[in-house]
Amino acid sequence: MVLVAQDAGAANQDVRMDVDADEEAQLLQREELDFEDNTAAQAGFKKPRASGLLGRLKGPDPPETQTINPFFAKAQEFLPTWLNRRFPERRQQALLLGGVLGLWLIVFIISLSVQLPITDGLGRSVTNLDCTDTLWKPKNECGIEGINCHPFSNSSFSFKCPAKCASVKVLNPRAVGPLDVNYRPLVIGDDAYRGDSFICASAIHAGVISDNGGCGRVILLGRRDNYSSVQRHGIESIPFDSYFPLAFAVTSDSSIKCPLDPRNTLLFLDFITTALLSIFVAAPAVFFPIFIIVFAHVAFASDPPSASSHNTTVLPDHIASFAKRLLPALFCAVIIYRSTVRRTLHGLTAHVEKTIMWLGGFFFGALSNYTFDWIPIQRLTAHDLEQQPGAKFALAMILVVLVAIIAGQIYYFWLEGRLLRYLALYGLFIFGILVCLTIPGVSLRIHHYIIGLLLLPGTSMQTRPSLVYQGILLGLFVNGIARWDFDSILQTTADLRGDGKFDSALPELLEPVISSTIQGLVAIFQWATPPAMVDGISVLVNDVERSRKFFSDTEDGAAGFDWTRPPEETLNEYFRFGYVRGGRALDYTKVGTLFGNGTWSGAGSG
């Protein structure tokens, strides 16, 4: 890469640098992907304006190309000018750039060494957890009576959690006794936590680790009763007034030499490195090393993708994800640069302003899991907008801000005489979105990397607002790809549902027959004739699958479910029923409660 310092006030500017700048300017005009006319080739020729609305939309004649007149111009140009004079040869500049990037890479790799495997005081490997890892698997994966999730007690293991687990929430309703929990951390209890609680969030709630991550030990306690709700360390736990077969406690483990999470160190390293590149390098192609550094920061530090469950180190998974996603992202970066970024940064001498506005916006967007975390929209889907409190209002406010920004950008495009071309371009975008909405069997999903790609062409001009908007959109694109990969803009219902509801038929329960025997309280449940498309029925008691019967197994099918409560059991018990199809449990009914005194109160239906 050639470092081109532009010194407008220097009388003896290097001739070769002038030639390079002229060639780049000509290349910019020839290779614009936004259908620009080559105004240099038409110098002195004034095209007639169309009359009426079309003529007014074309803008002023001649067009007013927007350029930034820097504040304190000499101060902002001093460093790149000094660098160009100190290292005037192209080879010297290339070696200097290579040295800076090489030094960054070395420090970056050393900082990642904290993600290598570590052991506890007994020499056993410390397990790396994700923020959503639990001991009790969701969606009935533990099997009948939790057989697949043993052991329940007399066992422990050491763990390491990443940073920022306190804000990780369930995004589809989870049953916790009489409650349907959503949009909050899944932490059930206090001191003793229910087995399906998020381990890392529970460790934060217990004060064993902070939201910056850390290490500790999980101790399996077996069955525990009456899980209380307590607000601690920014997390309010969820109450559960009955029993669950698996509980755990979280304690500190001084035998583990737990390294600090590297994200703060790497943020300082990456921002300083990119800021130096932004200030010292005048060529717009500095975008590429900055893009790679920010991409690496997201992929390894600020918002890394999920790794394999319960492994000893996340580093191999993160390296594999980074290598898989960077190459296609760089292809997109080339298109973004040639069509948008180069027009904004070419000839820009306000290097400090570029660093504050464009690079600052770049990091602001790339750190969206921090900077936009306060917005109550977890996913831009109709389900989330309908269910999450405050989501509709937040979306309305975002749209208002976007309309104001778009109006300002339209004005600048009109001044530059490019409005009609960009209206046509965005007309194609809108047409494509409408076509996607009509395709049967799939749903349109506008990921934030898609938002970045759609809106970036609207920042292809050299104004201060465009520097900020372009930086933020580039950051959103990088965060979306480095964290979530190139997720499809069209997704099936199953992709969007995740662990959510199927919107399936629900069993119609009859009033249970409850009686007392020498063995204890006996409750006999029956249901109306099931629809033909289901195979059987599943029963949850206290959110644990206790029975799964299939209608074809006996002559009269799965006609009922008998539940016996021992005489010494006095806690409430919570029942849900759901059909089974193809070996998979579908949606469950609302909760029905068998109280400790033997009475029944049950919804038992949707």
UniProtKB/TrEMBL annotation:
* TM helices/strands, residue ranges: 94-114, 271-301, 322-340, 355-372, 393-414, 420-446
Q: Which SUPFAM superfamilies match?
A: LCCL domain
Q: Which UniProt keywords apply?
A: Membrane, Transmembrane, Transmembrane helix
What are the LCCL domain coordinates in residue numbering? 187-238
**Coiled-coil features, chain-numbered ranges:** none
Identify the domain of life: Eukaryota
For this protein, the record's Pfam families field holds: LCCL (PF03815)
Q: Does the keyword Cell division apply?
A: no
Alphabetized InterPro entries for the sequence: CRISP-LCCL_domain, LCCL, LCCL_sf
What is this protein called in UniProt? LCCL domain-containing protein
According to its UniProt entry, this protein's organism is Karstenula rhodostoma CBS 690.94
